[in-house]
Design goal:
Blueprint (H helix, E strand, L loop, with lengths): L6 H10 L2 H8 L3 H15 L4 E3 L4 E3 L1 H25 L7 E7 L2 H16 L4 E7 L13 E5 L8 E8 L1 E5 L1 H7 L14 E2 L4 E2 L11 E2 L4 E2 L3 H9 L5 E4 L4 H5 L4 E3 L8 E7 L7 H13 L10
Helix pairs in contact: 1-2, 1-3, 1-4, 2-3, 5-9
Length: 298
């Protein structure tokens, strides 16, 4: 069995490119990781890493060894999970980073339902749109909306978010209702994330419309309130306006041209280092929202 010692630490260092980062992922000390790697290299009789003050990289031998070891570690982890999943008792703290009205209104309640199933589990949700460092900040996964940068992170689509254009009855009574996206150039529009709006139509190619208006905010609630106060036309994912539309405070407009919108994602650093509580929470959210798309207004 000695031949297996250090393999988990080796794969962790190879994938995180650092002894400290690997130690944080494995929940142990940096000295333990370094000691295990040294012992492994001693048994193999070759250096697996080229070390410098700023970077730890695989040697040629280390790269070849990693290709064999990574599948071994994943297979062992999956075998352990299959056994342990029969009697799951989640403990510790699940840390989730989220941003936006959708996360506040829908994801948070879903995670509350998840938490009810595991009384020993604590959930810490940080509502912040900043880019997080999953290791240093101790974040298990994040909920993000829109196009994702190619950062090497794992991203799983939670659901698509079709768009909707709305306005208050008072605004439409005073300024009239636009019948085509081009007419938005002559209206006051409430700008959320950007001032270029995209629309779709099966029989017409529509260029992106540059809009302007009297109110701009990156907060969905502030956009809704401004729209309800008659400050202009808003265009965001249609789930954002569900309550306002159902209660008559806002009116859908330009429905034939609503865009497909973007997607909400679950983002995390590396599946292999996710604790069981994070994996089960992710699976729960994916299942929870799998049929939720049918509730979106169209």
């Amino acid at each position: 069995m000695d031949s297996f010692e250090g393999i988990n630490e080796f794969v962790a260092v190879a994938e995180s490119q650092g002894f400290s980062a690997a130690a944080k992922q494995l929940g142990c000390s940096t000295s333990h990781v370094s000691r295990q790697i040294s012992r492994l290299e001693g048994r193999l009789g070759t250096a697996l890493f080229a070390r410098s003050t700023r970077l730890v990289s695989l040697t040629q031998a280390g790269q070849a060894y990693y290709q064999h070891c990574k599948d071994l570690v994943v297979g062992l982890q999956q075998a352990n999970e299959q056994i342990s999943s029969q009697q799951i008792q989640l403990t510790g703290t699940l840390r989730v980073s989220a941003a936006g009205g959708f996360a506040e209104q829908y994801v948070a309640p879903a995670l509350m339902e998840f938490a009810k199933q595991y009384p020993d589990l604590t959930i810490d949700m940080d509502f912040n749109s900043r880019m997080v460092n999953f290791i240093e900040d101790g974040i298990d996964f994040a909920i993000r909306y829109g196009k994702l940068s190619d950062s090497g992170l794992v991203a799983r689509k939670l659901l698509d978010r079709p768009m909707a254009a709305v306005a208050s009855p008072s605004y439409l009574a005073e300024h009239g209702e636009p019948q085509h996206p081009d007419q938005l150039k002559h209206h006051s529009c409430i700008i959320s994330n950007n001032e270029h709006w995209s629309f779709d139509h099966p029989k017409e190619v529509i260029e992106r419309i540059r809009v302007q208006g009297r109110w701009k905010s990156n907060n969905a609630k502030a956009v809704i309130q401004a729209c309800e106060q008659g400050l202009g036309i808003a265009y965001m994912p249609n789930s954002t306006f569900e309550d306002s539309i159902s209660q008559g405070r806002l009116v859908p407009i330009l429905q034939p041209y609503w865009g497909k919108g973007l997607s909400s994602w679950i983002v995390y650093q590396n599946r292999r280092f996710l604790p069981m509580r994070a994996r089960l929470a992710i699976d729960y959210l994916l299942a929870y929202f799998a049929h939720w798309q049918g509730d979106e207004r169209s």
